[in-house]
Amino acid sequence: MTRRSFFTHRYTPLAAAVLAASLAAPAVASEAVSIGVAPAASGWYFGYSELSRIVSADSPLEVSVRETGGSRENTIRLGRGEIDLALVDAPGAHEAYNGEGRYENDTMEGLRMVLWVAPSTMHWAVRQDSGIETFEDLDGERFNPSSIGGGGEYITELVFDALGIAPDYQRMSMSDAADAVVDGRIIGFSYNGIPPIPAFTEVHSSRPLHILSFSDEQIETATEALPFLSRAVIPEGTYRDMSEATTLGTYIGIAATDSLSEEAGYEFTRAYWENIESLGNTFAPAEGMTAEISVENTTTPLHAGALRYYREIGIDVPDELVPPEAR
Question: 193 with 120: CB under 8 angstroms?
Answer without folding.
Answer: yes
